[in-house]
Specification:
By secondary structure, the chain is mainly beta. Helices cover 0% and strands 48% of the residues. A hairpin with a 4-residue loop joins strand 7 and strand 8. The radius of gyration is 13 Å and the shape is globular.
Length: 123
């Protein structure tokens, strides 16, 4: 039974930073972060392709967020800098054993295991 344990959310002022962590119980080909702002649809934030160690980012977070993986610990991190109020959302970690795309995509249907979510609030 796969488990994902997320941590690191919280409340910060605009311009601040947070680091989210997601510990998986096993190795996965794709690891990603999604978020769901209040009253809005879930959206992809960043993805990481383990085999090539390639990150990908949504345009809205490019140059502010950084995704990385500690392979030995089966952990994926999301470093969030220069946070903005529009980054306020519930953030979810997701993993998958394979990808339909050349690199792991920020497409929710590609992921079959999700974490419980961690709240990020920027004021």
């Amino acid at each position: 039974h796969v488990q994902l344990v997320e941590s690191g959310g919280g409340s910060v002022q605009a311009g601040g930073r947070l680091r989210l962590s997601c510990v998986a119980s096993a190795y996965f080909y794709c690891m990603a972060w999604f978020r769901q702002p209040p009253g809005k649809e879930r959206e992809g934030v960043a993805s990481f392709t383990a085999r090539t160690r390639s990150p990908d980012y949504a345009d809205s977070v490019m140059s502010r967020f950084s995704i990385s993986q500690d392979k030995a610990q089966n952990t994926v991190y999301l470093q969030m800098n220069n946070l903005k109020p529009e980054d306020t959302a519930m953030y979810y970690c997701a993993v998958a054993d394979y990808s339909s795309y050349p690199i792991c995509a920020m497409v929710a249907s590609e992921y079959n295991t999700w974490g419980q979510g961690t709240q990020v609030t920027v004021s």
